Amino acid sequence: MIPILYVGAPGIGKTAKVRAKYNHCEILLLSSCCEEDIAGLPYRENDKEKRTIPKFAENINAIPTDKTVCLFLDEIDKARREVADTLLTLITNPRHFGINRDIDIVAAANPPLWGGGDGISQAMQSRFAIVDEAVDVKAWETWARDNYKDSRIQKCIDMIIKKEIPILEANGEGYDFRLTCPRTIELAWKALLAGQNHLVSGLLTTNAATGIILAFTKNEEDTKLQSISRSVGSKAMYNVFRGAM
Q: What is the rounded CA–CA span in Å between residue 30 and residue 74?
């Protein structure tokens, strides 16, 4: 298969999409890799310089040959220069790195607008078929409703579908950078469910954080009012019943 590069915002399901397609997905998080992680450790044998087989290649070789295998190069836009140079060879000739079977190579990158790195070279881009990846809102809604039954989260989902809360938004720079995406929205839900409301503004853009917190608190207030109304109604009926005796 021709190597594929998915380009899109973080947290929209690029990795999950790739994982679902293969029996085994060997992931290299390139933002934290050094050159030896890709090329193996150098050593000398009979005055010749050689390299050990890198761990990811050993993992791939251990997978049964009847299984589909993918080497997933994640955050390729954040790879160090020496790593990126080595990747050019890896993408062209995986067997040079000790891989003894056919594999598919897939990569993912985040554009600078969405917190990505400085981008990738034209030489690197020319080795991939580039696919622009966007949020599949309908698929996300189905997943979210199936996995989160809490009425407050269901209210949040309603507001996102109505575009009252953004599903994808970024602003700020440095430590003030905030990204709203399906992944950070889920983290915000988990924080709210755990009573850690103060963490939400550190996870989401201001628009999204405000909307989600309001959805939670309004839903809680409505529930309290309904409970009070039922309680008052029950007392009123009791008093009417006593008066009739």
A: 6
pLDDT score of 220: 54
How many helices (DSSP H) and strands (DSSP E) are in the chain?
9, 9
Buried b (16+ CB within 10 A) or exposed e, 71-96: bbbbbbbbbeeebbbbbeebbeebee
pLDDT of residue 238: 38
Token output for 154: 């269901």
Closest Cα to residue 40, out of 29, 51, 30? 51
Confidence of residue 88 (pLDDT cuts 50, 70, 90): very high
Q: Is 107 helix (H, G, I), strand (E, B) or coil?
A: strand
Alpha-carbon gap, residue 69 to 24, rounded angstroms:
5
CA-to-CA distance for 38 and 164, rounded, in angstroms? Answer: 45
| Percentage with pLDDT > 70 across the chain | 87
Two tokens, residue 87: 């990747």
DSSP 66: T
| Torsion angle in degrees (nearest 10) through CA of 159, 189, 117, 138 | -40
Please say if the pLDDT value at position 203 is more than 90. Answer: yes
pLDDT at 148 over 90: yes
